[in-house]
Amino acid sequence: MKHLGLRAKARKKFKVTTDSKHNLPVAPNLLNRDFTALAPNQKWCGDISYVWTGEGWMYLAVVIDLYSRAVIGWSIQPSMSRQLVCDALTMALWRRRFPRGVLFHSDRGSQYCSNDYQKMLKSFGFICSMSRKGNCWDNAVAESFFHTIKTELIYTERYTTREVAKQSIFQYIEVYYNRIRRHSTIGSIAPEMLENQWRNVA
């Protein structure tokens, strides 16, 4: 590999992002690994991952529409607080014009179980669903997105500052992932294209 100038994309050190050791109420797994949807704003999922920078860790929370696999809300902050996931959900709500009755799936981490987050879900009549304990496959779409962004972007970069990381991730999500990158699950087209097709038919 050295002779050919090749470099492996190795997995980075694992960092736990799900704190399920709490006494907050936990929702049942209503999604039950049914990641299909017939239209936008029927089912959303959310999760948190991490990014290393020269200034320390950054935490990335996303909200994904299961119909198109579009990242409709995201937030990146230096702490893994409930505000991180609330901000990602707030972006999704504004972008989708505050829909009601969405099934929202996440893990059972303390951020998603927090009173602040649950109040946001209830205020829009969202139906809360949570993965079973220690079962990443229950939220496979979000896990797949994080694998993709880390393989295609984060693991290829060395972010000197948190701001550099934020700008890089913004470009990836908003310019490339949602608008250009083809997804095999949705017919090898970009999420934005699928949603435009849905609007034209609807």
Number of strands: 5
CATH architecture call of the domain at 43-136 and 156-201: 2-Layer Sandwich
- Main sheet summary: 5 strands, mixed
The CATH C-level name of the domain at 43-136 and 156-201 is Alpha Beta
Strand line-up in the sheet with most strands: 3-2-1-4-5
Beta percentage is: 15-25%
Q: Using the alpha-carbon principal axes, give the shape.
A: globular
- List the quaternary state of the chains: single chain
Distance between the termini: 52 Å
- SSE ordering: EEEHEHHEHHH
Q: What radius of gyration results from the CA coordinates?
A: 17 Å
Number of helices in the DSSP assignment: 6
On the 0 to 100 scale, the average pLDDT is 92
Helix content: 25-40%
The CATH superfamily of the domain at 43-136 and 156-201 appears as Ribonuclease H-like superfamily/Ribonuclease H
Structural class, by secondary structure, is alpha/beta
List segments where confidence is low: pLDDT < 50 over at least 5 consecutive residues. Answer: none
Question: What's the CATH topology name of the domain at 43-136 and 156-201?
Answer: Nucleotidyltransferase, domain 5
